[in-house]
Specification:
The protein has 376 residues and is α+β, with helices and mostly antiparallel strands. The protein has 13 helices and eight strands. The chain folds into two domains: 7-171, no CATH class; 184-372, 2-Layer Sandwich (Alpha-Beta Plaits), CATH 3.30.70. The chain starts with 6 loop residues before the first helix and ends with a strand.
Amino acid sequence: MLQRFEYTSVAQGITARFPVLAYVGTQASYWTIANLLLVAVVYLVSKIMAAQFALPLMVSLGSLMVVAVVLGLFYGVSLGVSDYYLDRNFFRKLSLGKVILIKAIGSLALLFVLLFLLRFVLFDILIAPSLNVRSAMLSEESWKHTFHLLLIYYFFMTLIINFVNQVNKKFGPGVLAPLLLGKYRNPKEEERIFMFMDLKSSTSIAEQLGHLKYSAFIRDCFVDINEVLFPFSAQVYQYVGDEIVVTWATHEGIRDHRCIRFYFACKKQFHHRTEYYITNYGLLPEFKAGVHMGKVTAVEIGEIKKDIAYHGDTMNTSARIQSVCNEYNSNLLASEYLVKQLESTHKMKTESLGMILLKGKTEKIGIVNVLWIDHV
């Protein structure tokens, strides 16, 4: 099958392999661009003032650009590293208001460090030698205005960059650029793999835990499933109650049996956290899943709340396959069509259940029970 370049898949692949580097690199890139934009504005304003009042241009564009890159990398890497590890290990349990407050205080503290770096290190090394005057000392008043300028500019750029980060978190890596370019403005046909995962015995678990604790249980389940997404190039399409819908671009899901191995990686993730689940909830989560591939239509929908929606029979078939897992005492069922696209391997054990007429369908479809045995 001919594989075309797909920006979204490439971005998600890089994020999966190098999560820290991808996140920190993105932040460093954003802030470097933001600083270069500030330098361009300041330089052009300086040229306007110099031309208007017949003054010499005091500083070179090159030295300002070097300073902008250094400060952008320093600020972006520092924020990126701290945000990445705090989001995963500390912010997860805090309210959004507290997270915003802590990040604001941290950004302000980092801005003081950045100004110190600019004033006592970079100015003397990079800017002062390029000034066309013998004495390249700035007054306290000048540094105060410089601080106010950076404070206002960084405040608004932080809002913009945080907005971009939130969009990336909502849609996943590599989706923002296609959205901005209008890729999904009009319906677009794609071939994708969908997996519907539903919590087994959800009704009895909800009765056992009560609705508040049950909601926390579902939250923790989805957090653990999210830990497994990137290594298998999977994207969350939507959460519906105690069900999660995961999708892949076809060539990404088929490669290395990712669309099959993902389910068993989720089971392994739950087992790694057995002590946590037993201590807090008295049980270990178990999901059933149905997976199928085929053509769907992708389109951007909504005005007040925008989203990317997939439509088509592939979605319905995937959900129907998952719905018969209990009937056949199976944890993972796949369509025969999907299984035929996968390379044969001794680790994947399949059992054909024959042609089955799924609810709401007019034609029977081949269903296969699938197991993945890592130790073989």
